Amino acid sequence: MGDLATGPRPHRTAESLADKGAYNVLNTLLVVARSLILSILVARALGPSLQGLYSILLYVTQVGVQVVSLGFPSTLVRFVARRNSEGDKAGARAVVASIVRREIVLGLVATVTCALLAGALAVGVGQDAPRALFLLAALAILPDSLTLVYEAAFEGLLAYSLLLRINLALVPLSLAAAGAILLSGGGIGELLILKVALAVVRVALYWRVIGRRLPAGGTLMADTRSQMSRYTRSLTAIFLFDAVVWQRSEMLFLGLYCSRAAIAFYDIAYQVVGTTMRTLPEKLTDILFPVLSGLEQRGERERTAALYQRSVRLLFAVTLGISVTLGVCAGRLISLAYGPEYAPAADVIRVLCAAAPVVIVARATAYVLYAAGWQNFNVRLAGAAAALNILLAMVLIPRSGVVGAAVANSLTQVLSVCVLVSYVVRRSHARLPWDAMLRTLLAAAAQMTVMIWLDRVLGGWGALAGSAVCGVATYGAALMAMRVLTADERAMLARWIRRILGMRRTSAGGRN
């Protein structure tokens, strides 16, 4: 992200952003590892049917959090980033406190509403599940929504190293506790209680760290409150519509038309793809929003366009390589990790991976849209996408089950991304790096050829590990040969490698 041609010391700016992105990726690697390990443990302990019920319960909580959060996290990132860039840390604290108070009120309302609907949800999408389980799912809405808000505050401050330290403490604790529950014969109810308890602990830690990081005493001026309210309102409809397209609304139709096992297959596939993409592509984009907000605040549109173009090129390259790796390895990965009874999830993974490189471009594009304040366009687009997604789900799921659900979701996302990118590129006078993206596709074709051949030659874990390693190596070499990476990006990558090797040598010398 060093194409910041204007402004002082662009190389230093790029390296600073890269370092923060590295902290964010390390933090996400930790969270993703926890999610995948926990997913495997729970799936093997519960079996497809109960795993499907557990997935529905988590989805109910997730929808509640999405509705409660509205546009608050994005508003928080934008205005905390502004206050922090101006050196007004007390003002940033006031922004956080204002949104946290609103989130508490809305979270309590959502919890009560979900509790009142628990009986209907248990009979409908839960397929006659115990009502008490949906009551436990409702209790998780408030702490989960507060977690999302506080993490947005850390994002606005670019304080990813703090999040990493907190997760280094909480992730092992959560895995150990979940493992103890499953080994002792516990089930879904105990896992939900653990989820609520850990969320409460996490919120308490976030509150304490933010209190130390940002001094109290700041106030929000009337114009700032007005700007925040307008910005949140403009995002509210977008996030509600996005809850349909981007938050697995197909789960509800699977609950109505298919078995609980089908829900488990779709949820596991979505989780594998989603957590994998969050490891690098999505978290690398997270640093863009506060940076783009600062650039837009200063009116530096040329730097915004340059940063967007480079981000799309790098994100597309990273995501395409991950998608090919995951798509080819999907069958063996699911069978070896989750068990052969979850084999139908592999086909869902392949469909979702086909759309992932396009979808990740939308994330960077949306950040340009929000930073520039053009989100009203996304309201109309999100509404149309939500309607299309529901229509496709109603048509495809009864006929094709989990694969139909994946096709409905992926097709909707790809079409909406194309419209979004076209609008933002035209209005921001940026351009997409088509030539580099084409060369990236050729590199991915070489990677896929090598991986498919090795997967047929080898077997078991050897095929999984060997094809993945050789495929990634082939892809990286092809990217270098085709000069998808610029000279300064290659130099930065070399510096990171030397730094890592230097840290290892120092650590080894210390032990000796």
Describe the fold and architecture:
The chain is mostly helical. It is globular. Mean pLDDT is 80; it is low at 1-15 and 503-512. It has helices at 10-69, 72-85, 89-116, 118-123, 131-139, 141-156, 160-183, 188-213, 222-245, 250-257, 260-279, 281-286, 288-297, 301-337, 345-372, 375-428, 434-457, 460-481, 487-511. It is built from 19 helices and no strands. The chain has 2 domains: 10-432, no CATH class; 433-512, no CATH class. The longest helix is centred in the N-terminal third of the chain and has 60 residues, at 10-69.
Name the features.
single chain, 512 residues, mainly alpha, 2 domains, 19 helices, disordered N terminus, disordered C terminus
Number of helices: 19
- Output the helix-strand order: HHHHHHHHHHHHHHHHHHH
* Tally of strands: 0
Question: What is the multimeric organization of the chains shown?
Answer: single chain
Low-confidence stretches: 1-15, 503-512
Total domains: 2
- Mind telling me the C-alpha Rg? 23 Å
What is the residue-mean pLDDT, rounded to a whole number? 80
Name the helicity range: over 70%
Shape: globular
Structural class: mainly alpha
Approximately what portion of the residues adopt beta-strand conformation?
Answer: under 5%
Give a short account of the largest sheet. Answer: none
Explain briefly what this protein structure is.
This protein is mostly helical and 512 residues long. Helix content is 86%, strand content 0%.
Topology of this protein?
Elements: H1 10-69, H2 72-85, H3 89-116, H4 118-123, H5 131-139, H6 141-156, H7 160-183, H8 188-213, H9 222-245, H10 250-257, H11 260-279, H12 281-286, H13 288-297, H14 301-337, H15 345-372, H16 375-428, H17 434-457, H18 460-481, H19 487-511
Helix pairs in contact: 1-3, 1-5, 1-6, 1-7, 1-11, 2-3, 2-6, 2-9, 2-13, 3-5, 3-6, 5-8, 6-8, 7-8, 9-16, 10-16, 11-15, 11-16, 13-15, 14-15, 14-17, 14-18, 15-16, 17-18
